[in-house]
Amino acid sequence: NSDTFEGPYTVAFKVPQVEGYKGNVTFKKTDDNGKALAGAQFRLALKANDANPAHNHGDNYNETATSDANGIVKFENVPSGHQYTLTETVTPTGYIPAAAQDVTVSYGNLIGADGNVLNAITNVYNKTSVTVTKNWNDKDNQDGKRPASIIVRLLADNKEISMVTLNEGNG
Q: Which run of H or of E encompasses 95?
């Protein structure tokens, strides 16, 4: 008793759904002196040109994260192997925002356009210049009380960051 099969047959198999690696991505937010900056907010968004369903497994990752007191920024469950745009959306007061950059996520690491792992993003303090002009309002020292010099102190957050002495020769 043997069964024989003849002819071409079509067999349908279910294709298993495989979800790619998802991991946490962290980096540190610092100032140009290496000090941790809290309160910086970033958006990590899947690049539009990487929205191919074969790449994104149905995900359209677009999340925000904020640096903690230690400057650590953490994005969770980020699909690996895709291109993203990393944008600083909130910058700590007094700092220049970091430029948006294209990155690739690879097994929990952010890889920059230069191919290196991105461990930190640095903000530069927004420096300014101050011009001081000394104008005497004493009717050309009619009472003879004009001091020989005055001291001008520049403060930031109530801390002296610069001092200059103005006199007849420089002001």
A: strand 95-96
